[in-house]
Design goal:
The structure is a homodimer.
Chain A (H helix, E strand, L loop, with lengths): L3 E4 L3 H13 L7 E5 L2 H9 L5 E4 L3 H5 L4 E4 L3 H11 L8 E4 L5 H8 L6 E3 L1 E3 L4 H4 L17 E4 L7 H13 L4 E4 L2 H24 L13 H6 L6 H10 L1 H23 L3 H22 L2
Parallel strand pairs in A: 1-2, 1-4, 2-3, 4-5, 5-6, 8-9
Antiparallel strand pairs in A: 7-8
Chain lengths: ~290, ~290
């Protein structure tokens, strides 16, 4: 049985540790973690979620013992972590990550030591809806992977057996779909499904100072803005990291918004109804494909 | 016990009939309906949801017997219905409606016969989320009023006892909050919480032709676009009816979107993070006030 190491015991790091223990039958003795926060490490150990924890400055001691490492850090921290500890990883180990942008991480993964294998990944899960956007290790239990999407962006240098192992593990964790794409395609698609949606939700809240407006809510406003309860430092980093692609998506969205706005302003009922009918059909197609 | 009449047995008309029977202890013998569709009326009668149905052209025969009338029609149909049948309403009856704009309807309600009383209303409920935006009488059972908001825009001419009666009925139906405002305030607030959100959801789908994009969805995209499965004729009418206020809201939203876009484009990490932190705090305030 492999030894697993989790670098960064935040919301997702904690959820992965829980999922390894509860869904993948990994004995707790084989789950290690490192984090910058002593209390988090102690709490995870006391709760029987990890066997042992190391402070970040001693991460090398953990990494040298791990066959599989999950890097659960923000993109910029992740790349500097990888540079700092590259020599410490155990020979033959499999590394993966969970960051929401993949271009720069895949580039870093290409360059690491030949005897270790880094498969970049992105579990499409969080806690926005159920736990009101709560973050951090303490809320890990609210982060359920069941039925969710997982994107991986394999490199040509990745070992086939590692890919098979990782995909098997992902399904065991509860994820329903694994999509394999190039890092650039990931970043393009995620700029739309994830980053643009967060920018829109944030803009909706940004433009309305009246917090009593919720008395006029019927579900739409609540659904469109729940993700505005975001982790500000993380999303700042993701938006800026992927800004070239995100700005393109914002412009595409604004063009559609302007077209629909013009049809409304000019009271072009027939054209507007046709356009909205096409939108409805397309969204229904999407729901039928995704089952939601 | 009063006799209730429902004009228009669509999704909401059906849901109100069900709710009168099941939550307000109104005997089915006291629930009537009129509709343009014979099959709908027959089906409602067979299912024990109404005692008797009339085709729209015979609505007068129903209205002359009803103490409380719910007009469950689109705004434009509603106003012409009211004009056509004004002389048929029973003297002393209470009329209310469910339309998503209130300005023109309140104006029409001001002008009706002195011996009948029209309190304009807007139940903030639908089926988007649970039933994937399904409409029509057949989906009425998916439209649950529990915990939802209800807006009424009373007129100075409304009788106090009718207001008390209607509000009591609304709470019995399961709604959690009743907000009383002027019609113009309703239309301003709803332009934001409801119409702008539908325009945004529609624009998001409008700008992305790839229906396979859902493989990259993590919940945000799904939440922001579920309401794009909209009733195109109804929303076309609501958008155009309320266009002056809606266009203002679209411009406010675009201003916030452009500000956030600029901060991203200029990689102004600190300012962006500050702005997103304020957004998060404001949305959390809203959630705390509304309990969701």
């Amino acid at each position: 049985m492999q030894t697993f190491g989790i670098a960064g015991l935040g919301l997702m790091g904690g959820a992965i540790a829980l999922s390894l223990r509860d869904r993948c039958s990994v004995p707790v003795q084989k789950i290690f973690a490192c984090d910058k926060d002593t209390d988090t490490l102690n709490s995870a150990q006391q709760d029987g979620i990890i066997a042992k924890g190391w402070l970040s400055e001693n991460a090398g001691e953990m990494l040298s013992q791990c066959d599989v490492v999950f890097l659960c850090l923000n993109p910029s921290t992740l790349i500097s972590f990888l540079e700092k500890w590259e020599t410490s990883f155990k020979s033959g180990c499999l590394i993966t990550d969970i960051a929401g942008t993949k271009g720069s991480i895949a580039a870093a993964a290409e360059k690491i030591r030949d005897d270790i294998d880094f498969i970049p990944g992105h579990p499409m899960a969080g806690t926005h809806v159920r736990a009101g956007g709560k973050t951090g290790f303490a809320n890990s239990a609210f982060c359920d992977f069941t039925g969710k999407n997982y994107i991986i962006t394999p490199l040509t240098r990745n070992k086939k057996e590692n890919l098979v192992f990782l995909k098997d593990l992902i399904y065991k964790m509860g994820f329903a779909n694994i999509t394999e794409v190039a890092p650039i395609e990931h970043d393009q698609k995620i700029a739309f499904t994830s980053q643009l949606c967060h920018v829109i939700a944030a803009s909706l809240i940004d433009c309305e100072p009246d917090t009593e407006i919720t008395r006029f809510g019927g579900g739409s406003f609540e659904d469109l803005t729940r993700i505005a309860m975001l982790n500000a430092p993380m999303w700042t980093e993701l938006f800026i990291e992927n800004r070239a692609l995100l700005l393109e998506r914002i412009e595409q969205f604004k063009a559609s918004l302007d077209t629909i706005k013009s049809l409304i302003g000019e009271a072009q009922a027939q054209k507007l109804e046709e356009r909205l009918s096409l939108v409805r059909e397309r969204r229904e197609d999407m729901a039928n494909r995704a089952g939601k």
